[in-house]
Automatic annotation (TrEMBL):
<keyword id="KW-1133">Transmembrane helix</keyword>
<dbReference type="InterPro" id="IPR012368">
    <property type="entry name" value="OxRdtase_Mopterin-bd_su_IorB"/>
</dbReference>
<feature type="domain" description="Aldehyde oxidase/xanthine dehydrogenase a/b hammerhead">
    <location>
        <begin position="218"/>
        <end position="296"/>
    </location>
</feature>
<keyword id="KW-0560">Oxidoreductase</keyword>
<dbReference type="Pfam" id="PF02738">
    <property type="entry name" value="MoCoBD_1"/>
</dbReference>
<dbReference type="InterPro" id="IPR037165">
    <property type="entry name" value="AldOxase/xan_DH_Mopterin-bd_sf"/>
</dbReference>
<dbReference type="GO" id="GO:0047121">
    <property type="term" value="F:isoquinoline 1-oxidoreductase activity"/>
</dbReference>
<feature type="transmembrane region" description="Helical">
    <location>
        <begin position="21"/>
        <end position="39"/>
    </location>
</feature>
<dbReference type="InterPro" id="IPR000674">
    <property type="entry name" value="Ald_Oxase/Xan_DH_a/b"/>
</dbReference>
<dbReference type="Pfam" id="PF20256">
    <property type="entry name" value="MoCoBD_2"/>
</dbReference>
<dbReference type="InterPro" id="IPR046867">
    <property type="entry name" value="AldOxase/xan_DH_MoCoBD2"/>
</dbReference>
<dbReference type="InterPro" id="IPR052516">
    <property type="entry name" value="N-heterocyclic_Hydroxylase"/>
</dbReference>
<keyword id="KW-0812">Transmembrane</keyword>
<keyword id="KW-0472">Membrane</keyword>
<protein>
    <submittedName>
        <fullName>Isoquinoline 1-oxidoreductase</fullName>
        <ecNumber>1.3.99.16</ecNumber>
    </submittedName>
</protein>
<dbReference type="InterPro" id="IPR008274">
    <property type="entry name" value="AldOxase/xan_DH_MoCoBD1"/>
</dbReference>
Length: 724
């Protein structure tokens, strides 16, 4: 555990920790359609509530922590810091049980050579919730190991050893954590000690500034794109600018003559220009004479039509009561609306890429990845090495939002480095970031409802059409065979959360000719937009107050119902919902439940020169125990701005077989000038933390749509929202 111990120990001398088992998804493929439907609905309901765990390779403290000579403690994070502030929260949890100051904790990314691995990676807003107990348990175990060894060396009872700021004392005896760790060769590992009660926390629940802020402000080389190795070359890969395009022929003569170009690689489907600098590599790429085989020149209308309710595989994911038969009884009394959301990309500032170095029997990649274990396995296979011969050095990532779960680019980077025999810096151009991405799927929604004579909702149905977000990335068709459709991610949030006796949700899955994948909040963005917009229309149709209607439909005695009520009550109070609005202002609201985190927003808008401007956002979030309230507020603000971008600006179009956008000038996003006043109010509805990063994004678009209707009388049902 001391800094001198550079080589990873495979086990402790006296006793090993029990390693927690991995989660295995599987089961018997059911023979009958009826049984499949029942199982799929059960799985869909569980997926909505799923606590995504961390699947950790070891709980042995020396893989997690390292004590340095200045008595600071390095915590090796299995999770990627990509701007969400997790390093700060994890440091707070570790400091609680290690009995050190927060300043004594330094957090770095674990590498795959001698650190802990997490098979599920970073995603689903699960970092803090999944590590809330494990980090504290391992930290507490390390503390007790150090105390036990100090007591042994001093010949005193362990109960007499006290700890403060990493310094242990007993009578006249005194030693730092480092003193004990560097002088100990064999360790006695105790049973996992009891953890501190919430009331005893020193850091959790207090506002703490981001510990990763100083190096970012100072511009230190901490991102993947910043990495530099001796004798490093630069490469840019040739990628098809056409949807489904394949390389027919290539003439690299002109590219090879560009000053600075070292080599043009043609290795099967892999074509790359390698140069002494990035500029030369890009100029060489532009000089390649490539002829493409284009299977179809897609246009926007036909591309959009692929995602339409009624087309593709139909999977019922929620079924309570008899909503369909009730709606069919009197079709002329049914209120029905349709909603659409567009194809979108992640548009993070740091392009996708890696720095790769491959030698005879080992490979090292510097990459900001959300799934280092997956990358390690995939890269080893791509360059014919054993898994243990590949080391992933995870770097900070300049944005991600799900895009950095895919290893294909890094596999090719490793292959390029293997061919040239030198370290290679391989990153996408900005055009490739738009035209060769993994996209948020477009969606189509049809909702229908019928009222009773007293104006309450008797029945409601929701049909969502979407491509998948995770099944297409799996190595076989097992996911489609078992699940039928991707209700885990793309269909996440499609079920009706309100207490309506007769309700159902159905997913229509159809593949697109581009790869679609995880995008921040997965299916919660489109599904919350459609369902909450529809609920706001139902409230208007029946003359009910939108917040009051939701409180009635979410009432009950269960803990989740009480949490809903508290969030809505807080929202109404803090937003001034019942107070008069200023002239020229429209006001709307929405609520969402994303894996136990409840987020609700009231948004005020105005119209200037026929353009929608968001003036104020009031967000209320119940994500359980608030580890770092300041960090939560920052996450809510970031999610709100991303939600405003999704609601008012972004969306990809297809023209002549290509994604039309090639850079940010063709993909508008919200800027600092578009930033409204944002107020965040935190409600702690549980004694453990839930997810924070994604839930606040969900209610933004429907709340804006409702505010526009409140101001103009126009129902806008397609993202991005436009008045004309």
């Amino acid at each position: 555990m001391a800094t001198e111990d550079k080589q990873p120990k495979k086990k402790f001398s006296r006793r090993k920790f029990l390693q927690r088992g991995a989660i295995i998804f599987g089961g018997t493929v059911v023979a009958t359609i009826a049984a499949k439907g029942h199982i799929r609905r059960f799985m869909a309901q569980k997926a909505e509530e799923l606590d995504i765990p961390s699947v950790l390779s070891t709980y042995e403290p020396h893989f997690w922590f390292e004590v340095l000579p200045d008595n600071t403690v390095v915590y090796k994070s299995t999770k990627l810091e990509m701007g969400q502030g997790i390093f700060t929260g994890l440091a707070m949890l570790a400091a609680e049980e290690l009995e050190v100051s927060l300043e004594q904790i330094k957090v770095v990314h674990a590498n795959t050579a001698n650190g802990v691995e997490d098979s599920l990676g970073t995603g689903g807003s699960n970092t803090t919730s999944s590590l809330f107990k494990p980090v504290r348990e391992v930290a507490a175990t390390l503390r007790e190991m150090l105390k036990t060894e100090a007591a042994r060396q001093w010949g005193v009872p362990i109960t007499s050893v006290k700890v403060a700021n990493g310094i242990m004392t007993s009578g006249t005896h005194k030693a730092t954590y480092y003193d004990i760790s560097v002088s100990t060769k064999e360790w006695e590992v105790p049973k996992t000690p009891a953890l501190k009660p919430t009331a005893a926390f020193r850091f959790v629940g207090k506002d703490v500034k981001r510990i990763d802020l100083p190096p970012k402000v100072m511009g230190n080389p901490i991102f993947g794109i910043d990495q530099h190795l001796p004798d490093m070359l630069y490469a840019v890969m040739l990628q098809s600018p056409y949807i489904g395009g394949t390389l027919k022929s290539i003439n690299a003569g002109a590219a090879a003559k560009i000053n600075g170009v070292v080599q043009v690689i043609e290795d099967g489907e892999l074509v790359a220009v390698v140069a002494k600098n990035r500029y030369a590599a890009e100029k060489g790429l532009q000089a390649l004479e490539a002829v493409w085989d284009i299977p179809k020149k897609w246009q926007q209308a036909e591309f959009e039509a692929l995602t339409t309710v009624g087309i593709g595989t139909e999977v019922r994911i929620q079924s309570e009561g008899s909503p369909e038969s009730i709606l069919e009884e009197t079709p002329n009394e049914v209120f029905r609306q349709e909603y659409r959301t567009p194809l979108a990309t992640h548009a993070h500032m740091e392009p996708h890429g890696a720095v790769a170095q491959v030698e005879k029997d080992k490979a090292t990649l510097f990459v900001g990845t959300q799934a280092s274990t997956v990358f390690r396995t995939a890269i080893a296979k791509a360059i014919d090495l054993k898994t243990e011969q590949v080391n992933i050095e995870t770097t900070f990532a300049g944005g991600s939002f799900g895009r950095r779960m895919d290893a294909k680019h890094s596999e090719k980077a490793a292959r390029i480095a293997q061919i040239v025999g030198k370290p290679v810096h391989v990153f996408n151009t900005r055009q490739q970031e738009f035209q060769n991405a993994i996209y948020r799927p477009q969606t189509h929604h049809v909702l229908a409802a019928k009222f009773t004579k007293n104006g309450s909702i008797e029945a409601i149905t929701h049909h969502q059409a979407t491509a998948d977000q995770i099944l297409g990335g799996l190595p076989s068709n097992l996911g489609y065979t078992l699940l039928g459709a991707d209700f885990v991610s793309a269909g996440h949030g499609a079920s009706i959360l309100y207490n309506i006796t007769h309700k159902s949700a159905t997913l229509w899955q159809n593949k697109l000719p581009v790869q679609t994948g995880i995008w921040r909040s997965v299916g919660m963005l489109p599904n919350t937009f459609a369902i909450e917009s529809f609920m706001n229309e139902l409230a208007h149709k029946t003359g009910k107050d939108p917040i009051r209607m939701r409180m009635e439909l979410l009432s009950g005695t269960e803990p989740i119902n009480r949490r809903y009520q508290k969030v809505l009550e807080t929202l109404a109070e803090k937003s001034g919902w019942n107070q008069p609005k200023a002239a020229g202002i429209g006001r709307g609201m929405a609520i969402g439940n994303d894996r136990k985190s409840i987020a609700a927003a009231v948004i005020e808008v105005m119209v200037v020169d026929n353009k929608i401007q968001v003036k104020k956002v009031t967000q209320v979030l119940d994500a359980g125990l608030a580890i770092n309230p300041e960090g939560i507020r920052q996450q809510v603000e970031g999610a709100t701005m991303m939600g405003i971008t999704a609601a008012l600006y972004e969306g990809l179009t297809v023209k002549d077989g290509q994604i039309a956008a090639t850079n940010f000038h063709e993909y508008p996003m919200a800027t600092l000038a578009d930033t409204p006043e944002i107020e965040t109010f935190i409600v702690e509805g549980h004694d453990e933390p839930y997810g924070v990063g994604e839930p606040p994004l969900a209610p933004v678009a429907p709340a804006i749509a409702a505010a526009i209707f409140d101001l103009t009388g126009k129902h806008l049902r397609t993202l991005p929202l436009k008045l004309s």
